[in-house]
Amino acid sequence: MSGLSAELNSVEREMAELLDRLDRWSLAYHRDDSPLASDAEYDSELRRLAELERANPELISPISPTQRVGDKPLPEFVSVRHKLPMLSLDNAFSGEDLEAFEQRNTSKLNIPSLRFCCEPKLDGVAMSLLYENGILVRAATRGDGSVGEDITHNARTMATVPLGLKRQDLPKVLEVRGEVVIPRADFQRLNERQARHGETIFQNPRNAAAGSLRQLDPRITAKRPLVFMAYSVGHVQGGTLPDTHSEVLTYLNELGFKVSELTRVVTGWREAENYVASILAQRDDGDVDIDGVVVKVDDFSQQNALGYVARAPRWAIARKFPAQEEVTTLLAIDFQVGRTGAITPVARLKPVFVGGVTVSNATLHNADEIARLDVRVGDQVIVRRAGDVIPQIVKVLVERRSGDPTPVVYPTKCPDCSSSLIRDVEEAVTRCDNSMACPAQQKAALEHFVSRKAMDIDGVGEKLLGQLFDQGLVKTAADLYLLTPQDLSALDRMGQKSATKVVRAIAASRETELSRFLYALGIREVGEATARALAAHFDSLDLIMTASRESLEEINDVGPIVAGHIHHYFSSQAKRQIVVCLLSAGISWPKKENKPDLTKSLADQTWVVSGKLESMSRDEAGAAIRQLGGHTAGSVSKKTDVLLAGPGAGSKLSKAQSLGVTIIDEAAFSEILREAGL
Ligand code: IVH
């Protein structure tokens, strides 16, 4: 072998190894949510591959990750005819509808019951991917079901779309179908980014996904957080597949596709309906919008015997959930003053059932949002409630507007104390700066102080605080600790017994934790996680009160803005006075910050499970958490109480660390389950 070809061989080998490693890391990250390498390691290997490719362009593989994003926009979209039509599904709205669906099919097949494969119905956009000899050759939208548009250039940009399928026994031609979705958290960030750049705000993740796929320029699509989840195969030629739909899903997962982890095989409509109930119960916790459950006859020979009616298969049905968007009327807009003085416009709506609850208020965020929507009182609006986000008005149906309602006039004076308002351009917030004397701010601060995650004072809520404030009995939080049962029993509908109970509850809150106390003060931008991080870092109120901005910024979760707010708070003579009064009222905490007591019930705690667990699946861990009264969520945020982390927890682990979220491992979790008798 000549020197040159030996060298080329070793380059080829290195490139092949890099491709293989990058592919494995990408699958672990994107398909399995369980990273094997850090982002920095991935980027560095990718850079090395790109460098070798630049030096040896003839060795570039069509399935190299460097080949995902094209650098030129397409002149126009090309139509493609699907080899097999992409059908739609009939709908079921109740258990009875499912019973009738099973009944129709069992009597046609003359069998007593059916095995179904149940999957979440993902609320996104359908996409078909065509592979020839394992290489992606075409991607298409559904279009009218028979003819769609070629979007290969865009599909290639998605990390969850394998460019090549690695397996020896692949059919010559394999069409994979699935849904393109945008996870809720990414959708929120996408809209924030769009707003910052003055670009279109998307109504919901589905519209954003559809808009992102219909781009001629793949460089735009590449910036959108699109995720492809496979749910079936279409055209297959030159090879055989498993005999059941559920096995095909496992097969697709092995080929490199992300498939829903919530899929389950059941027997009979009752089990299917139980599955529907369990998915509905988790709907708000998941990463992506789910608009129902698809129930499919699992056995392909039975599917074939059942066939199709019109444009829908007889063997599958969509069991729909309550809609997450509804139309209602905007009755009024109120301007509320929050505890930090921020003015929030709140839409009062004609009550409407959406996302499983009756909604009569929605947030309008700020003046920019009102201007963007051009929403006016009397308008018909689309309200959206998805996940645990506050209901939002996402669209005004301008074409339904009657007459010429007047545009909303944003207040220039505080609706409560009439002080002039200040507009904080950076934050797009209008604020009442009269923090010490604005009654609305004082009341909101008191409500925050007693709230569950702050001082957690039982039996003292908005109503009682309102009365105490209005009668001049309580102005600041410290006054609460001076109340006597006599003071309280003078109030409306307050007997001696309840008065004593309230005073006891207030007294009991004196023994607290430093993090709760810090959170209860209501310092701007200091949420529970930041308060916990501050307490853990300094373990002393004195040190926090005298800390410089720089030393505050040493904490992971604290940037210059938050450090500024903390510093500003404790520099104020009046605020320091409040703290002193509270301490002289007897509030105290143990020196070392206690971790939350994980051995009790998990009532109202939000958990995230990430990484690989040995003794159970992540789903089983989630089920146990919910059984103990906790909630589970798909991503780590300020609202997370505990992260259960196994090996490969990756970005969720680092996020939890930076937010000061309690992190436990599988052994500790097993201990909790044992204690709880599970
Ligand atoms: S199977 C013939 N499975 O729902 C059956 N569809 O109304 C074809 N969808 O446009 C669909 N999640 O894009 C199937 N797990 C799932 C799905 C799913 C979402 C969409 C699909 C289709 C629509 C049918």
Give a quick summary of the entry.
This protein has 678 residues and is an alpha+beta fold. The strands form seven sheets. It has a five-stranded mixed beta sheet with strand order 2-13-10-3-9. It has a five-stranded antiparallel beta sheet with strand order 16-15-14-17-18.
Which descriptors would you attach to this protein?
single chain, 678 residues, alpha+beta, Helix Hairpins, D-amino Acid Aminotransferase, Chain A, domain 1, OB fold (Dihydrolipoamide Acetyltransferase, E2P), 6 domains, 5-stranded mixed sheet, 5-stranded antiparallel sheet, 25 helices, 24 strands, binds 2-(butylsulfanyl)adenosine
* End-to-end gap: 65 Å
CATH class of the largest domain: Alpha Beta
CATH superfamily of the largest domain: DNA ligase/mRNA capping enzyme
Q: How many separate domains?
A: 6
**Number of helices, counting only DSSP H or I runs of 4 residues or more:** 25
Q: Report the mean per-residue pLDDT as an integer.
A: 91
Could you tell me the number of beta strands? Answer: 24
The proportion of strand residues reads 15-25%
